[in-house]
Amino acid sequence: MTWRALVVAIAVASVSAFPRSVHKTSSDIINQIISEGYPAELHQVTTADGYILGVHRIPYGKDGPSEGRRPVVFVMHGLMGASSNFIFLGKENGIAYNLADAGYDVWMGNARGNTFSRQHVSLNPDDNQQKYEFFDFSWEEIAIIDVPTMVDYALAVSGEQTLHYIGHSQGGTSFLVLNSMKPEYNEKFVSAHLLAGVGYMNNFPNSELRIAAQMTTILYAMTRTIGLVEIRSLDDIPGNLIGRSGHSRTDYCFGDIAYKDYCNMLGLNRIMGETDMEGLGLGGASLKQFAHYGQNIRDKSFRRWDHGIVSNRLVYGERNPPAYDLGRITVPITMHYTVSDELLDEQDVLAMVRDLPSAEARKVARETFSHVDFVQAADVKELVTNYVIYMLNRVESTLAEME
Question: pLDDT (tens digit, 9 = 90+) per residue, 343-363?
Answer without folding.
Answer: 999 999 999 999 999 999 999
